[in-house]
Write a structure and sequence with these properties.
Elements (H helix, E strand, L loop, with lengths): L3 H24 L7 H20 L6 H20 L11 H28 L8 E4 L8 H18 L6 H10 L9 H9 L2 H8 L3 H16 L4 H20 L4 H22 L14 H13 L1 H13 L13 H4 L15 H9 L10 H36 L2 H15 L4 H20 L4 E4 L12
Antiparallel strand pairs: 1-2
Helix pairs in contact: 1-2, 2-3, 2-4, 3-4, 3-12, 3-13, 4-13, 4-16, 5-7, 5-8, 7-18, 8-9, 8-10, 8-17, 9-10, 10-17, 13-15, 13-16, 16-17, 17-18
Length: about 450
Amino acid sequence: MINIKESKKLFLVILSSMILFLFMLNINQNDSLSVVSLSLILLLIVFFVSCITFSVNIVNPFMFFLVYYFLGSWDVISASLNLRNTKLIWNNNIYQKAMILLVVWFLCFTVGYFLILKLKKNSLKREKFFIPFENKKKYIYLLIPLLIFSIYVFSNIFEGISNITSLINAPLVGDGRLAEGKGFLLAFAYIIGLIPVVLLADGKKNMSIISSVIIFCLMILTGRRSMAFKAAFIPLLVFWNFREKKIEKKWLILGGFIVVFIVSIIGTLRTINQASFSFTNVENGILSQFVILGKYVGYGDNLVDLVGKIDTGQIPFQKYNFIFRGIQYLIPRSLWLSKPSVHSGEIVSNLVYFAGDVGRPVGAFGWAYLQFGMLGVIFSGLITGIVVNQLYSWAIKRNDLFSLGLYGLIILPMLEMFLPESQMLLMVNIMFWCVAFYFCPNRTRREAPISEDSKKDFI
């Protein structure tokens, strides 16, 4: 039976979804949009509104899911509503198929997540773990190698920079060429996101925040803006929420606005010489900016064009062609001159546009569809949901520096666990965790500090 509190949330989801759906109908510029497409748009709205409404803990996987996929989904919707022009012209069936991929993957992810939670009857049972670095004096053993890592990684990434202008232009170009052929170094740079977590665990709040900002600035200079946000802020956010103070949704919303502001500024600077990029088919200024914001992600072009070319027979399903690209990602190009394209965005770009850059993301759903079609989308969503649930439940049961830090580092790559670049990050981070755990001093065995009402943490 649904209690009063849950029924209020359900009513809020229905009301908010209907208001947003009516708004979509009002701004629709596509007179030939089918009922099926409108229904798919409504389902996407309901899903994202539910993620916000029913989430008790703001660092649960569904909130990260929302942050990671909302703008991309919005870009597909805005393209289907003809709110903006697209690279290629397709009929409504292709846009509809792209939205089907989104809905099917999201639903399968949700089913996998809650199915395994239902089956694990003892999922909240108190367990004893070996907890490393419980003594704060021992944090130095983790901080020192992380600092050495950071110096080595960034000195190698930035070597060969002839002038400050080239360094500043890297985030504005956004093609990642500064770190080209150095994927293994970027993986180590990702681990550096643990530095703010270690400082916070040692009680140094201000230093943890300052170090997070420094890491963000260094990472963004490599041209990998998405990786900069993931590494610099998310591990700290997770650890702060569980071990320092539970973060309220209002602060997350405020942080979201700041992130959107930063992304908008960088995106504007990147496209300042591309007048057509800022053109939309809507007159409202705020709505137009929101459409452009979704366009920075590019799913309305990349995912739709990929689906269109596959469904029209121009691109065959790739099946196992790219199965080892995650491992190949770690090999420096200087050691393997004939190394093939390993980034999913670059692979999709070569197949669809023949442009050869890394700015063509298609998400976990697009990548699964490229490999095995709709069957790949279904199993990819289910498996990802199951694995993500296992990771999250493990992290909140241990509730220590390593588990929460690792969860913060790999939760977003885990949502795209079948993409080569995500596999590379997962392998390096997990190997680092295992090595650090094995060699750490002062391992103690104790009960995981899980609260009686921690079942709420799963949502």
